[in-house]
Specification:
Order of helices and strands: HHHEHEHHHHEEHHH
Strand content: 5-15%
Number of helices: 11
Number of domains: 1
Strand order of the largest sheet: 1-2-3-4
Distance between the termini: 41 Å
Structural class: alpha+beta
Largest sheet: 4 strands, antiparallel
CATH superfamily: Outer membrane efflux proteins (OEP)
CATH topology: Outer membrane efflux proteins (OEP)
Number of strands: 4
CATH class: Mainly Alpha
Shape: elongated
């Protein structure tokens, strides 16, 4: 048993050598310096601390809340992102495994016949044919003196975290898309209501003028003018109905359903307008999943440089085997059948024709690209927030102006109708007024929906703790442990 004891001692010495003498080549990651603005230029003066809340509840529409919950539970992209996390976790396990001794076993049974030509010495010693049996256990271990395996593990760990951030990004996009499409659907419902009511009003006008024309009170031109208004409204309705179906189908796909009808809760005019969330540009570095994902990609690329540089240094490995070998199966596990071996090896490069140097340069170039992508992602995030804040502010002004325009057009129609009935103006004046009122009412419905959606865009651009609040609503959670 002395050789087996020696092998154990060698393994322990190798472990201590790797533990205490090992170093990790390559650069350690340090977050790059960033030019972060102190505040957003167009931040709302009445902003509230709502970035970490389930902001969609503030619309006060239970049906929207239910649709978002259903989407988080059933959406296919969520499940695909979760599967990607499980895959990355499995890759991390594989990358870490060489840090530990690799144990294995084997066995063999065989029957051989040797040549008896000219009475070979072997044929005089052994029975011919003869049997042989082996059973053994083996161990191998690469001592990570230069940190190559640790750098590969660090890169795999960062890729796992990046896939988790991608999963959070899917949640951010999904919640925002469901809310945005639902609001758009309510806006189209409002446009359809306006078009239907206008069509009914125009239909009454056509009947009235046809009756007056019958008795010679108005000309046929007036009848045709009224009919042209009616057909204008009638032509708008199929287009709106087609858009409603398209948006409903888009929502169903987000929910993981087959295309179909989507139930509504409140009307567009009954929705509550949420407040603008308060936030600082520096908060985006932690709140935006795309920024966090880009940084993890940078960490992974940085670690790959160390893994590539470690190839310049020798690889030190320990191997050992212990087992039994016998010609008779009944004697296989007897003491005299015991066999063992252990060895150490060192392998290093002398000339590789630039192969290692090429890998190092490749890793450095990948890191450079990852750094530029990280910086660009941050700048895009700042632009997203500024654009969303500006759009919300301008849409509020636009919606208010459009509301005043609708009121003015309604008064215009009323006064034109009075003048026409009093004989002070031709029907073309009424027609002109109504031609302005109908599109202004449609535009008002569009602006109101856009105003609500601008708040959705603000919350999406800022990210925040609301993503963590949405995570428990998902039916699948990432597999593996990122620690």
């Amino acid at each position: 048993m002395q050789p087996l004891t020696d092998m154990r001692i060698l393994l322990v010495l190798g472990f201590l050598l790797g533990l205490f003498s090992g170093c990790t080549v390559g650069p350690d990651y340090v977050r790059p310096g960033l030019d972060v603005p102190a505040a957003f230029i167009h931040e709302d003066a009445d902003a509230q601390d709502t970035a970490n809340t389930e902001w969609w509840n503030q619309f006060q529409d239970p049906e929207m809340d239910r649709l978002i919950a259903e989407a988080l539970a059933n959406n296919r992209d969520i499940k695909i992102a979760a599967a990607n996390i499980q895959q990355a976790a499995a890759v991390l396990i594989q990358a870490r495994s060489p840090l530990f001794p690799q144990l294995g076993y084997g066995g063999e049974g065989r029957r051989d016949r040797v040549s008896e030509f000219r009475n070979t010495p072997l044929s005089q010693i052994l029975s011919n044919p003869y049997d042989s049996y082996q059973a053994f256990a083996n161990v191998s271990w690469e001592i990570d003196l230069w940190g190559r395996i640790r750098r590969l593990s660090e890169a795999a760990q960062a890729r796992l975290l990046a896939t988790e951030e991608a999963w959070r990004g899917v949640i951010l996009s999904l919640v925002s898309s469901v809310a945005s499409n639902y609001i758009q659907l309510l806006g189209l419902d409002d446009q359809l209501r306006v078009a239907t009511e206008t069509l009914e009003t125009y239909a009454q006008s056509v009947k009235l003028f046809e009756l007056r024309f019958k008795y010679g009170q108005v000309s046929q031109m007036t009848v045709e003018q009224a009919r042209s208004q009616y057909e204008t409204a009638a032509a708008a309705i199929p287009q709106i109905e087609s858009q409603i179906v398209q948006v409903e189908n888009a929502i169903c796909i987000l929910l993981g359903r087959n295309p179909g009808h989507v139930k509504r809760g409140r009307t567009l005019h009954q929705l509550h307008l949420p407040p603008v969330p308060v936030g600082l540009p520096s908060d985006l570095l932690a709140n935006r999943p795309d920024i966090c994902q880009a940084e993890q990609d940078l960490i992974s690329a940085n670690a790959q440089i160390g893994a590539a540089k470690a190839l310049y240094f020798p690889t030190i490995s320990l191997t050992g085997a212990f087992g039994f070998a016998s010609r008779d199966l009944s004697d296989l596990f007897q003491g005299p059948s015991r066999t063992w071996s252990y060895a150490g090896s060192i392998i290093g490069p002398i000339f590789t024709g630039g192969a290692i140097d090429g890998q190092v340069r490749e890793a450095e170039a990948v890191k450079k690209a990852a750094l530029l992508n990280y910086e660009q992602t941050i700048q895009n995030a700042f632009a997203d927030v500024e654009n969303a804040l500006t759009a919300r502010k301008k849409l509020l002004e636009q919606t208010q102006a459009q509301e005043r325009l609708v009121s003015a057009n309604r008064e215009y129609v009323r006064l034109a109708a009075l003048q026409y009935e009093g004989g002070y103006s031709p029907y073309s004046t009424v027609l002109q007024a109504e031609q302005q009122l109908f599109p202004s009412e449609l535009n008002y419905a569009q602006y109101r929906a856009a105003l609500f959606n601008s708040l959705v865009d603000v919350y999406k651009a800022m990210g925040g703790g609301w993503i963590e609040a949405a995570e428990p609503l998902t039916a699948v959670r990432q597999g593996g442990n990122s620690n």
